[in-house]
Amino acid sequence: MIKLKTKEEIEIMIEGGRRLREVVKELMPQIKAGVKTSQIDKQVEELIVKMGGEPSFKKVKGYFWSTCLPVNEQIVHAPPSDRVLKEGDVLTVDIGIYYNGFHTDFADTIAIGEVAEKVVRFLETGKKTLELAVKKVKKGARLGEISQSIQKEIERAGYSIVKELTGHGVGRDLHEDPNIPGFLDVPINKTLVIRPGLVVAIEVIYAMGGGGMVHEQGDSWSLRTSDKSLSACFEHTVAVTDTNTLILT
Question: Is the pLDDT of residue 217 over 90?
Answer without folding.
Answer: no
